[in-house]
Amino acid sequence: MLEQNKDIALTGMEALKVLSEIEFILISLRNMGSFYADKPFALEEYRKDTTDFIDDFGITTRLAQIRNIISKHFDDTLGEDDMDDIERHMVGLKFWKPKPYRQSVEARTKNHKP
Questions:
Q1: Which of 48, 69, 92, 112 sits most deeply, having the most CB atoms within 10 A of its CB?
Q2: What global pTM score does this model have?
Q3: Is 75:3 a contact under the CB 8 Å cutoff?
Q4: Tens digit of pLDDT for each residue in 69-106?
């Protein structure tokens, strides 16, 4: 890690923006989880409400803004591995991947009760 990236500083307003966005997302998801916790029969509604929340409230855009606020304070000089410190730290992340379509459909059909 570059010496100048060992400590970064956000302005107070940047920190408040990041914290308010995280709070909005976290508490909203917690509220949805709590609402549906005692309604195991409402799994499809829970999934739909969660998806609608992500889509209707621009959650991916909000998360991208949080990432931008934080990452703009890092020096993005490339190292010997041709990566900056952020890239190097993220290289091992495992991202969501869709299940093969056939397995996904079969699993839903198997668990579906008319």
A1: 69
A2: 0.79
A3: no
A4: 999 999 999 999 999 999 999 999 999 998 887 666 66
| Structural tokens at position 17 | 């923006």
CA distance 114 to 36: 22
Structure tokens at 12: 């107070």
The whole domain housing 90 covers 3-111
Residue-level pLDDT at 109: 61
User: Residue 1 is encoded by which pair of tokens?
Assistant: 């890690």
Overall number of domains in the chain = 1
Per-residue confidence (pLDDT) for residue 101, from 0 to 100: 76
Instruction: Write down the pLDDT at residue 100.
Output: 84
Q: Please, how many CA atoms are within 13 Å of residue 48, restricted to the half-sphere of its CB?
A: 4
